[in-house]
Amino acid sequence: MVWTVYLSGEIHTDWRDRIRDGAGALDLPIRFTTPVTDHDASDAAGDALGPESTGFWRDHKSAKVNALRTQTQIRAADLVVVRFGDQYKQWNAAFDAGFCAALAKPYITLHAEELIHPLKEVDGAAMAWTQTPEQVVDVLRYVTTK
User: Fold this and answer.
1) pTM over the 0.85 mark
2) What domains, with CATH codes, occur in the chain?
């Protein structure tokens, strides 16, 4: 079986590359999918639907267009990794984790120890909490090869 793993969450660090590289080095049977990680492109996802007079409506349209990709890929995934960084609040990542929980889709959280309290409900529904991309790779190795 080739697993599909969706990598959700913050886009400002190299955590996705570290997971893909680690899984690749172990030749794990995994296909990774992601949201659009180009911040400007994500913000402009709804621009093809016409101009808006306020940022709210531009963001609203773009969020819906981005959700077409995100919800489809989460539904198709066997497992989701949700990364919460410490530089920005990732409300979208929390939403993705909630979407996974509602679908009974297994997910792993990835975040620093300092975020345990604010993410207690999110972590409570997760199958695992990890602090490094390397720990994620270890979990992926176990679940895909044992």
Assistant:
1) yes
2) 3-145 (3.40.50.450)
